[in-house]
Amino acid sequence: SKSDPEISREDQKILPALEAIIVGEEAYRSPNLKITTLASKLGVTQHRLRALINQVLGYQNFNDFLNTYRIEAVKRAMRERETRKLPIVTIALDCGFTSLSPFNRVFREQENMTPSEYRRRIGASHPSK
Fold first, then answer.
1. pTM of the full predicted structure?
2. Distance CA 69, CA 107 (A)
3. Which of 7, 33, 66, 81 has the largest count of CB atoms under 10 Å?
4. What does 1-41 look like in DSSP terms, one character per residue?
5. In this structure, what are the phi and psi dihedrals at residue 32, rounded to the nearest 5 degrees?
6. Measured over all CA atoms, what is the biggest interatomic distance in the chain, rounded to whole angstroms?
7. Distance CA 122, CA 129 (A)
8. Which of 34, 28, 24, 20 has its CA nearest to residue 93?
9. What are the Cα distances from residue 117, in Å, to 6, 51, 104?
10. In angstroms, rounded to a whole number, what is the distance separating the alpha carbons of residues 50 and 111?
């Protein structure tokens, strides 16, 4: 893993709160979530939150951070019985992407394959009963 920079006490308090909002409340599903909104929810400055996301968590930027959660959610939905047959665009929009082309680009960057290829691959390993 990346060599962990020393995490300050303040950051150690912010991280679980950030996780609670992003993961617990699934805030990433909101297509227009802004770093300013998130920072004020956490009671920290935007600058502080940006530094935490970039330097401590190692993401390039706020969008990169959100998109990582969004892509994971898309992959989960493609694997889950109730949602795996939905159109890919429906799943992508439900997970916070605003349209198909940025979703496709981000998915390819993160997974080195298209969403359709991913779906075919998991379909092959989970034949539907």
1. 0.88
2. 11
3. 66
4. -PPPPPPPHHHHHHHHHHHIIIIIS-GGG-TT--HHHHHHH
5. -110, 30
6. 50
7. 14
8. 28
9. 40, 35, 11
10. 25
